[in-house]
Amino acid sequence: MSGSAPSSLSASSAMFDVFVIGGGINGCGIARDAVGRGYSVFLAEMNDLASGTSSGSTKLIHGGLRYLEHYEFRLVREALMEREILWRNAPHIIWPMRFVLPLHKGLRPAWLVRLGLFIYDHIGGRKRLPKTRTLDMRSDPAGKPLKASYRRAFEYSDCWVNDARFVVLNARDAANRGADVRVRTRVISAEDENGTWKVRIQNLLTGETETVRARYLVNAAGPWVDHVISGVLGQNDVHNVRLVKGSHIVVGRKFDDPRAYFFQNADGRIIFAIPYEEDFTLIGTTDQDYDGDPKDVAISDSEVDYLCAAASEYFSEPVTRDDIVWTYSGVRPLFDDGASKAQEATRDYVLKSETARGGAPMVHVFGGKITTYRKLAESALEKIAGALGPKGQPWTHAGALPGGEFPFDGYDAQVEALMRDYSFLDRHHAARLVRLYGLCARDLLGEARSVDDLGRHFGVDLYEAELRYLAAHEWAVSGDDVLWRRTKRGLRLSQEEAAAVDTFMREISGMHNQAANAGGGHA
User: Fold this and answer.
1) pLDDT in tens, 68-97
2) What is the rounded distance in angstroms from the CA atom of residue 62 to the CA atom of residue 57?
3) Can you give the pLDDT at residue 343?
4) Does 501 lie in the same domain as 421?
5) Per the CB 3.0–4.6 Å rule, which of 118, 305, 334, 373 could disulfide with 25?
6) In terms of DSSP H, where are the helices of 340-447?
7) What are the strands, taking DSSP E only, across 84-151?
């Protein structure tokens, strides 16, 4: 993985094939797929990568068991087929997880739940993940943290993902292959000029503006997709998306079992309780329509009360506000299909192609979910190929993400190998580095032969070497970028330690934030 500067050919003098607006999972996935097929690509993200919806998820690679109730069979099947593909391509940040679904009297009957799980097991090409089984909660360890009234449950498989890292690694791979990836870069305007796009951008760190030209425009701005259509492209009366807020709470660990829980609620909704960052439990999500600015999204008091009450319905030890150590919220930009309830709006993606007055082509991306991002990107590439002419074949189904070039079941072996080659690392530190960076942990550690070689210590197992790596290779420029998106060390550092990380990152970011574009752009 290189951290060299972009190529000397400036973006303003190049004609890119594809310009992508948005550095979430869909934008980064499209950029990666396109550049891997031979298209030249420029991506602009106005904030940090994964700073919006893509880091506000429940962090699952899953088919969406509850979507079966809304007859979303195509979406569920596609998502289930993706689970093992994505696990194989990123075994450091994606791994299998078993989910325990306790049966609740008065809600969905056992036969209906079992039927749904039978379909879930069989329509998605499951090969490596174990199938559903029935649990006696009176004897199974999964029953221990729950109220005694829950006597029976079903256990099924899905996968966990480190969502923010998933986005960053897609961007990293795109840049490694030649894409020009710019963060903290706002798109001011996009104009059709004789059949091609003239895009004005502004570096929000320096204030400098630049003009980039491209043959095709991809609007993957997530919750801001309609804003791009109205504000950047100048179209009026736009309403394509239904913004739905999902909030989560993180509490101290409620159970020791490595399995997660799937809880049904009396209102028809569901929540998950998931082992998180070793010492915590993640509880969520909510589903509420949202009409505010996506950048201001935050959990409400009513959502906190809802999640505490829903979890306390199941856990023998209630979940209270005092247990909460962190909250986060995201806004899903669902395609507005007219559904009456937020939880009933389709999670499927919709791609809308358009041609500007002068003939310049574009596509708008609505909806989608992390699990199906790769298939969404392939669908977008069909539209790009239709407008620009085909280049290359679909390839991402077998394309490992950076650091994930090892067997899907090889995580433990990689931890052992890292500890052998860097004997000063304790197991906890080595395990964390492999979980976040996979094989790239060796690039981070470099020639270090002792803890002292890692530089300044910022708290727990966070050292200067890691911060410099994140600045040079992963576009990190602030404390939040490091602590809440790329590492989650924010859960463990004191306020003083977190402030020190932020100060350090801001000091070095001027030197490194553009260096991450190893490949640069090309005509």
Assistant:
1) 887 788 889 999 999 999 999 999 999 999
2) 12
3) 67
4) yes
5) 373
6) 373-388, 411-421, 427-437, 441-445
7) 94-102, 133-136
* Any domain includes 198: yes
Euclidean distance between CA atoms 115 and 154, whole angstroms: 11
CA 217/CA 225 separation, integer angstroms: 13
**Residue 373 in domain:** yes
Residue identified by tokens 């009409």 is 291
Residue showing tokens 């100048």: 234
Residues 112, 144, single domain; the answer is yes
Looking at residue 523, its pLDDT comes to 29
Nearest to 185 by CA among 344, 46, 72: 46
Let me know whether 153 and 259 are in one domain. Answer: yes
Peptide bond into 285 cis (omega under 30): yes
Could you list the beta-strand ranges (E) of 15-122: 15-21, 41-44, 60-61, 94-102
The two tokens of residue 15 are 């004609």
Token representation of residue 502:
């932020």
pLDDT at residue 122, rounded to an integer: 92
CA distance 299 to 248: 8
463 and 470 in contact (C-beta within 8 Å)? no
Nearest CA-CA partner of 45 in 233, 186, 171: 186
Flag whether 515 is in a domain. no
Backbone angles phi, psi at 365, to 5 degrees: -105, 120
Number of structural domains (the chain) is: 3
Same domain, 322 and 246: yes
Q: Of 346, 337, 286, 368, which Cα lies nearest the Cα of 53?
A: 368
Residue located via tokens 């004897």: 139
Expressed as residue numbers, the domain containing 112 is 95-159+242-330
Q: What residue ranges of the chain have pLDDT lower than 50?
A: 1-9, 511-515, 518-523
Residue 295, C-beta contacts closer than 8 angstroms, at least 6 positions apart:
none
- The residue among 124, 169, 171 whose CA lies nearest residue 22 is 171
Check which CATH number belongs to the domain holding 427 and give it. Answer: 1.10.8.870
Q: What is the pLDDT of residues 467-493, one digit of tens each?
A: 999 999 999 999 999 999 999 999 999
Q: Which residues contact 470 (CB under 8 A, 6 or more apart)?
A: 476, 481, 482, 486, 487
DSSP state of 438: G
Query: Rounded to whole angstroms, how far apart are CA atoms 104 and 431?
Result: 37
Closest CA to 278 of 431, 148, 147, 80: 431
Same domain, 384 and 477: no
Residue 162: how many CB atoms within 10 A of its CB? Answer: 23
The secondary structure element, H or E, covering residue 74 is helix 73-89
| CA–CA separation, 335 and 442 (whole Å) | 42
Q: Does 438 lie in the same domain as 298?
A: no
